[in-house]
Every structure is written in structure tokens, then in C-alpha cells.
Design a protein that fits this description.
Blueprint lengths: L1 H5 L6 H11 L1 H13 L3 E4 H10 L4 H9 L1 H8 E7 L2 E9 L2 E8 L5 E4 L1 H10 L3 H5 L5 E3 L19 H13 L6 H9 L1 E2 L2 E2 L9 H16 L11 H6 L10 H16 L3 H10 L5 E5 L18 H24 L6 E8 L12 E3 L6 E7 L1 E2 L2 E3 L12 H16 L5 E5 H15 L2 E5 L4 H4 L7 H8 L1 H14 L2 E4 L2 H5 L14 E3 L3 E5 L8 E3 L23 H9 L7 E2 L9 E6 L7 H10 L1 H6 L1 E6 L10 H16 L6 E4 L5 H13 L3 E4 L8 H8 L4 E4 L4 H4 L7 E3 L4 H17 L1 H18 L2 H21 L1 H25 L7 E3 H4 L1
Parallel strand pairs: 6-19, 9-10, 9-15, 10-12, 15-16, 16-17, 17-20, 22-23, 22-25, 23-24, 25-26, 26-27
Antiparallel strand pairs: 1-2, 2-3, 3-4, 4-5, 7-8, 11-12, 13-14, 14-28, 18-19, 21-24
Helix pairs in contact: 3-4, 9-14, 9-31, 11-13, 13-14, 15-31, 16-17, 17-20, 20-32, 23-25, 23-29, 29-30
The structure holds uridine-5'-diphosphate and 1,5-anhydro-D-arabino-hex-1-enitol (LCN).
Length: 818
């Protein structure tokens, strides 16, 4: 857009807007008159654009204005608060960058305002007294980041590690400043046994001399000489194990440290930290849902997070073993996934305390129950109702972990709001580096859930959840995301984290700064899909053909039973397939409705969906019950029997992978129609199997797929457009069958380039050691923030979590179960 080019980042909107308003004074006065005409209200971008349009009759003038600076500002305004005669704009000219201005509708004067002032404007729409209260609770986490450097370029957001390594290099520059690195190395140990250096090397000079001797010495050895052969020489110089397994690897590590000590540079610093023996034991928290390896997927609150974590553990273990070997150590790593023990396990193993993780040698699931004053909570509890149990759970879990690991872990990673809060409590208590993963942040799933929190609280307890999210994001040393959009969205849409920058929950808390996406703690590390399971349909010799009879029954048998409803009359048609939890946001019912309405699509393809339970009386999940009923009525309304097969949630991932491949055999497609999808593992599973994929443009899939190349984007809010796009694809394939193959192959190519677990594990373990060191460098500031967070936890979170009801019949006397 021409206007955006002329708008420099250095010009603030408050500075440039008055001139622009003056130039179109007549039209703008009309436009602002329209804005304020309906009195107090919150206007979203679409309303602002509509009203602007309506305020002008002359098409040429309108186009000119839209192409100009004002058009640009209004296009970039996410929302505006109208409090006549003032209109306060929240403008987002670029991902992550926000500016707030207020404009007087009569004289068109403009004034820049702070986020806090803007939020007060917004609050007046919901709770006037709170907005006016000078002592209303305002939290500003940004105020404590006094010396934390920030990224400045939106394009660099999510590359925190690189930035931190550059920043730390400059901070370590100079003989006096390198000392913290020496202290860090002196503290390295495994169960009390020193690693890399011992206490004799207590000055940087001594360390440098030792490294010099070591480097000359190993240079003279054959490359493959094992470390054990010269261990004693190293010890004479004050050097311990951990430098490498062979002379060659030892030399590389010694060299990168020598370079860093001489003049710190980001490349060597990163390289050195990828070799530092600092991480052996990892704890991953994921309390909610049914966490298990069998028979759990599709159960309430149990989806991609479980798949992600189990695959992540395998990738971590493999990478740790490789690294430990390279370091020349014989330490056994330990990975614990700590989840909730559910006594009423519903046929799963969630009532078992300890379970080895399949295809690993050193990783376990450790289950710790939720306790209340009256005993152990027996049944599953929705993730929205989980908050009253977490503090006690964190204490119990910390003790059990230390017991099981025979010491503290080196890295703690939390998952989702509950896991991240627990990870924050435990990592603070034990003094351990913490990473957080959201999978999905609930705030962005429900529009205006912050300002409307009071209405939603009884059902969702967002007061607890958003408070927990804020505490965890700010406690954590680093944040792992799956995509860029998760952090900073796209040109038009704010990211999930970005929407926590400045927000308010009137009557509860105003976040003047919640979290800033330019904080270098943000890092993108996209997950993959297990490629031993999800491989292309073309790899015939590898296929799990033993499932063929079952899949045949699942797809095509004419019977309707507890497993499936509906049947497919015409077997020759390709199948469009979807699989998800039966949550509202997954929009499976939306897909069924689009299909039902679109005759053209119905003539071309059959529809198969795997989702939730089929009988509402069997479900305990309130959203699922609603969706089951809706599915049933849609099938009836559009008379879909004969063209649809609705299969209940499936738990065997080997069979599921074969199901994706069988759908590919029909030259079908995968459709992911979610109203919002944080990442979307099914999308990459389908693509790995070579299935052309149509996925929502709302969230992660928009980044995974390049529209029209590696698959297609669909708009979940425009069913007709989406179903026609799918129909067009199948018409095109009917006319030119090579088109289907092309989309299938290009989807696979995209996966291989960007979405594998190996890339993920390398990145995250590097984060673990680098951010672990950064934490040491930054001790005082970190401590100050911790105190603020602790206060907030104590006074706010605890109070809120007590409001969430605990089911009366839930807690049974502990003694009764013994
Ligand atoms: N899944 C499954 N059976 C089902 C529904 C889903 O095995 O009935 C699996 C699916 O293959 C994927 C995960 O659960 O691995 C869902 O992950 P996704 O990221 O798509 O969504 P989430 O449920 O995490 O929101
Ligand atoms: C949760 C979600 O909602 C999905 O979008 C993700 O793919 C999954 O977790 C794994 O991160």
C-alpha cells in the first residue's frame, strides 16, 4: 500500500495523524460523526471500515482516502473505543507493534495515549467505577524489565535464541565481564561430580592457560583417540570430563570456549552451549486430560498435546543420548512426563503411578494425584475447573520428582495453562530453568473473553486461567511456540501471545503490559509427526496392511453401531476426511453443514469424520454433548445417510495413520475446518501421509500450508466459499488426475523442509542451556520480577482459584482408598 511506504516507523501515529485528518477534514468529520453517533461502544476493524465507507458517497474520493495514510491507519486499527466525543484507537501497524491514540470527533484533535489509558477507556464500556478507580489493580510486567533488551524487528520475533546469544556475547566482552561464565562452568556437575573444570581453575587466566595446553595437546593426537586415553593429562591441568568423546570433539569444544574467552561472539557461544553438559534430566508437566499412551486420544481435553509430548520425549531422549555420547560421558538421561493420576481411569492407565514410555529407554510418565483437604480427587476434571488443585499438586509433584530422579531436574517444561503454572511454581521453588509451551491460549479462542470475563467465568474460569497464563509467561525463562503466528499473528491478525500485550479484565485486573512479543524469550520450534507412523501412502511395502479389514469395516460396512453412524453408498467417490476432538472450536459440525448444503460437493465426494462420542448420554463433556446433538440433527436435516460416515474417536495411531493413507488411496483429501487452530497436528499427519489438505486459515495451519501450493486454506467463517473451494479441487482432479499428485507431493515437500522432530529437539535443548546461563547473568532482575510475581500469585491467583467449585462428591477420604 502506497501510504504505508510513506509512513516511517520513526513517525508516531499521534504525530502524523493530525496532518492527515486536516487534509481530509470534511470527510473525516462526517466519518467521526458516524463513529460517535451510536454512543458508547467498542468498534472492531470491520465496523470502522464499514462506517468509513458509508460516510462517503464519492467513489473517487473514497478510493483516494482508502489508499492514503488515514485509510492505512483505519485498516490497521484492531478496535476502537467510542466514548463521545472521543474515539480511542488501538492501532497495529505491524505484527507486535501497537500504538494508541484518542481523537476528538468535533475538532479532530489527536493525542497519543498509553496502553493503560486506552484500557481505561475500554473499561468504561463495561465497568465505569472500575475504570475511574485510581487504585484499581494494574499490573505492568514490562516495568520490571529494566535492562532486558528487546528485539525491534517484527520479522525477528520468535528468533530469541539468536538475539540472546548476540546480546550475551556483548555483555561478556572484556576481562572483567567474562567472570560469570567461569562461575557457571565451576558450578557444572553431575550428582556432585565436577564436569569440564574443577576448582583449581578459579580465574579466567588459569582457565585460558589450561585450554591452551589442552588444545596443543589434543591437536597432536589421532582424531579418534578416546578421551579416556588422555583423561589423566586433562586432570593435571584442572580439566574434567565433558569436553568430548574423542580428541577431535574435545578439540572443537576447547576451541569454541577459547574463542569465547578471547572475544565472545554469538556463533561460538551458541556452539559452546550446545556442547555444555548442563542438561541430563528433564521434567515435562502436563496435568490436565487423560495423559496416556493408549486409549486416551479423543477423550475430553485429550488431544494433540499428548501426541506432541510423547513424540517430543522420544526426540529429546535421542538427542540427549547423542549429545551425552559426544560429550564423552556415560550418564543416563532421565525424562519424566508428570501428569495427573486419575483413580477413575475409565479404562486407561491414568491410575498407574509410573509407566515407561514406549520406544524409549530412560523416559517415564509419572502420575501424581490431585489432593484436596478431604483426600484424593477420583474423577477427571475439566481443564477449565482445574485451578483449585494446582498449588498442592505442584508441592506433591516436586517432592515425587526429586525422589524419583534422586535429585533435581535440569530443565522443566510446562504445557498449557495448568502445566505452565505448575512448572512456574516448581521451577521457582527448585531454582531450575523453565520453558513453557501453550499449545493453545484460551483467550484468543473466544472473542473479547477478557472484557467479558464475568459472564464467562462461571463456565470457563478465565479469571484463573488468564492470571495463571500471565504468571507463567512472565516466570518462564523461555517460551517455545510452534509457529510465528502463535506469537505475533499475521499482517491483519494479532498473535495469541500478542493479544496478551495490553488487556483488561474490568473489575479484576488491568494488564498495562502482560507480555511483550519482542521479548527475546520467544522461540519458534515447530513439532513434527512421527515419520515411522505417518509416512506416505505410496510407500506400499511399509504400510500397515494388517489393518485393512478393520478399516474396510470402519469406512464401508453398512451397519450403524456404537462405533459409527451413517454409511457410504457410492464407494467409487473420493473421500473427504476429518478427525478431531468434538469441541465447538474444531467445527466438525460446521464441515458437516457445509457438505450438507453443497450439492456440487456431495455429488463429487463422500464425507468421513472421526470425532468424539456418538451418544450424548455417554459423554461428560458439556461442549461435546452439544456437538453430538448438533451432528445428529445435521445428518437428519440434510439427509446425509448414504454419503456420510461418522466414526467415534479413534485411539490407535498406527491404525489412524493407515486410515489417512486409505483416504489417500481414494484420491481424497483431509479437511481441517476449525474456527481456530493453534497448530494442528492432524494437518501435518495428513500431509506426511501424502493426503492433499484443506485447513483453516485461522491459526497455525495458515503457516504450515502455502495456499494453492502445499495444500489449501479455507475460511471457517465462510462455509460456501470453503466448500466450493474443495469442490473446485475435486473437479480439477477429475479433469486432470495429475493435479492431485502434484498437491500431494508438494505437501510432503513442505513437511520435510520445515516440520521434523529432529530440528525441534536440537533447538529446544540449545534453548535449555543458553537460557539457563542467561538466567545466571540476569540474577538480580530475575529475582525482582520473581518477588512481584509471587505477590501477584499469592494475592490474586490463590483467591481466584478458591472460587472454582470442587465437586462435592469428588474428594473421598484418602484413608478409604488405602
Ligand atoms: N486424534 C486421534 N483420534 C481422534 C482425534 C484426534 O488420534 O479421535 C489425534 C490426531 O491424530 C492428532 C491429535 O489427536 O494427533 C490431535 O491434535 P491436533 O493438534 O490436531 O488438535 P488438538 O486436539 O490438540 O487440539
Ligand atoms: C493443541 C492444539 O489445539 C493444537 O492446535 C496443537 O496442534 C496441539 O495442541 C499440539 O501442540
Amino acid at each position: 500500500m502506497a501510504a504505508s511506504l510513506s509512513f516511517k516507523r520513526s513517525d508516531s501515529i499521534a504525530d502524523s495523524m493530525p496532518d492527515a485528518l486536516r487534509q481530509s477534514r470534511y470527510q473525516m468529520k462526517r466519518c467521526f460523526a458516524r463513529y460517535v453517533s451510536k454512543g458508547k461502544r467498542l468498534m472492531k476493524n470491520k465496523h470502522l471500515m464499514d462506517e468509513l465507507e458509508k460516510s462517503m458517497d464519492d467513489k473517487v474520493e473514497k478510493d483516494k482516502l482508502m489508499e492514503g495514510f488515514l485509510g492505512y491507519i483505519i485498516c490497521s486499527t484492531q478496535e476502537a473505543v467510542v466514548l463521545p466525543p472521543l474515539v480511542a484507537f488501538a492501532v497495529r501497524p505491524n505484527p507486535g507493534i501497537w500504538e494508541y491514540v484518542k481523537v476528538h470527533a468535533d475538532d479532530l484533535s489527536v493525542e497519543g495515549i498509553t496502553p493503560s489509558e486506552y484500557l481505561k477507556f475500554k473499561e468504561s464500556l463495561y465497568d465505569e467505577n472500575w475504570a475511574k478507580d485510581d487504585n484499581a489493580l494494574e499490573i505492568d510486567f514490562g516495568a520490571l524489565d529494566l535492562s532486558t533488551p528487546r528485539l525491534t524487528l517484527p520479522s525477528s520475533v520468535g528468533n530469541g535464541l539468536q538475539f540472546v546469544s548476540r546480546f550475551m556475547s556483548s555483555k561478556l566482552e572484556g576481562p572483567d565481564n567474562i567472570k560469570p561464565l567461569l562461575d557457571y562452568l565451576l558450578a557444572l556437575n553431575y550428582r556432585g561430580e565436577k564436569l569440564m573444570i574443577n576448582d583449581t581453575l578459579d580465574t579466567v587466566n588459569k582457565l585460558q592457560t589450561a585450554l591452551l595446553l589442552a588444545e596443543v595437546f589434543v591437536s597432536g593426537l589421532p582424531r579418534n583417540t578416546p578421551f579416556q586415553k588422555f583423561e589423566h593429562r586433562f586432570q593435571e591441568w584442572g580439566l574434567e570430563k565433558g569436553w568430548g568423546d574423542t580428541a577431535e570433539h574435545v578439540k572443537e569444544t576447547v576451541n569454541s570456549l577459547s574463542e569465547v574467552l578471547q572475544a565472545p561472539d554469538p556463533v561460538n557461544l551458541e556452539k559452546f552451549f550446545s556442547r555444555v553438559p548442563a542438561i541430563f534430566n528433564i521434567v515435562i508437566f502436563s496435568p490436565h486430560g487423560y495423559f496416556g499412551q493408549e486409549n486416551v486420544l479423543g477423550l475430553p481435553d485429550t488431544g494433540g498435546q499428548v501426541v506432541y509430548i510423547l513424540d517430543q520425549v522420544r526426540a529429546f531422549e535421542e538427542e540427549l543420548l547423542q549429545r551425552i555420547k559426544l560429550m564423552g560421558l556415560s550418564i543416563k538421561p532421565q525424562i519424566l512426563v508428570v501428569t495427573r493420576l486419575i483413580p477413575d481411569a475409565k479404562g486407561t492407565k491414568c491410575n498407574q503411578e509410573l509407566e515407561p514410555i514406549f520406544n524409549t529407554n530412560h523416559s517415564h510418565i509419572l502420575r501424581v494425584p490431585f489432593r484436596t483437604e478431604t483426600g484424593v480427587l477420583r474423577q477427571w476434571v475439566s481443564r477449565f475447573d482445574i485451578y483449585p488443585y494446582l498449588e498442592r499438586y505442584a508441592q506433591d509433584a516436586a517432592a515425587t520428582i526429586v525422589d524419583h530422579m534422586e535429585g533435581k531436574p535440569d530443565l522443566i517444561i510446562g504445557n498449557y495453562s495448568d502445566g505452565n503454572l505448575v512448572a512456574s511454581l516448581v521451577s521457582t521453588k527448585l531454582g531450575i530453568t523453565q520453558g513453557t509451551i501453550a499449545h493453545a491460549l484460551e483467550k484468543t479462542k473466544y472473542e473479547d473473553s477478557d472484557v467479558n470475563w464475568k459472564e464467562l467465568d462461571q463456565k470457563y474460569h478465565f479469571s484463573c486461567q488468564f492470571t495463571a497464563d500471565m504468571i507463567a509467561m512472565n516466570t518462564s525463562d523461555f517460551i517455545i511456540t510452534s509457529t510465528y503466528q502463535e506469537i505475533a499473528g499475521s499482517k491483519d491478525k494479532p498473535g495469541q501471545y500478542e493479544s496478551h500485550y495490553a488487556f483488561t479484565m474490568p473489575g479484576l485486573c488491568r494488564y498495562a503490559t502482560g507480555i511483550n512479543v519482542f521479548d527475546p524469550k520467544f522461540n519458534i520450534a515447530a513439532p513434527g509427526a512421527d515419520q515411522t507412523v505417518y509416512f506416505p501412502y505410496t510407500q506400499k511395502q511399509k504400510r500397515f496392511t494388517n489393518f485393512n479389514p478393520e478399516i474396510e469395516e470402519l469406512l464401508y460396512s453398512k451397519v450403524e453401531n456404537e462405533e459409527h453412524v451413517g454409511y457410504l453408498t457410492d464407494r467409487k467417490k473420493p473421500i473427504i476426511f476429518s478427525m478431531a476432538r468434538l469441541d465447538t472450536v474444531k467445527n466438525i459440525t460446521g464441515l458437516v453443514e457445509w457438505y450438507g448444503k453443497n450439492k456440487r460437493l456431495r455429488d463429487l465426494v463422500n464425507l468421513v469424520v472421526v470425532a468424539g462420542l456418538l451418544d450424548p448420554s455417554k459423554s461428560k463433556d458439556r461442549e461435546e454433548i452439544k456437538e453430538i446433538n448438533k451432528m445428529r440433527s445435521l445428518i437428519e436435516k440434510y439427509q446425509l445417510t448414504g454419503q456420510i460416515r461418522w466414526i467415534r474417536a479413534q485411539t490407535d495411531r498406527n491404525r489412524n495413520s493407515e486410515l489417512y493413507r486409505c483416504i489417500a488411496d481414494t484420491k481424497g483429501a483431509f479437511v481441517q475446518p476449525a474456527l481456530y487452530e493453534a497448530f494442528g497436528l492432524t494437518v501435518i499427519e495428513a500431509m506426511n501421509c501424502g493426503l492433499p489438505t484443506f485447513a483453516t486459515n485461522q491459526g497455525g495451519p495458515a503457516e504450515i500450508i502455502i495456499d494453492g501450493v502445499s495444500g489449501f486454506h479455507i475460511n471457517p467463517l465462510n462455509g460456501d466459499e470453503s466448500s466450493n473451494k474443495i469442490a473446485e479441487f475435486f473437479e480439477k482432479c477429475r479433469d486432470d488426475p495429475s493435479y492431485w499428485n502434484k498437491v500431494s507431493t508438494d505437501g510432503l515437500k513442505r513437511i520435510m523442509e520445515c516440520y521434523t522432530w529432529k530440528i525441534y529437539a536440537t533447538r529446544v535443548l540449545n534453548m535449555g542451556s543458553m537460557y539457563g546461563f542467561r538466567k545466571q547473568l540476569n540474577k538480580e532482575e530475575k529475582l525482582a520480577k520473581q518477588r512481584y510475581l509471587q505477590l501477584f500469585y499469592n494475592l490474586q491467583f490463590r483467591r481466584l482459584s478458591k472460587i472454582v467449585p470442587i465437586p462435592a462428591d469428588a474428594a473421598q477420604k484418602h484413608a478409604a482408598q488405602q
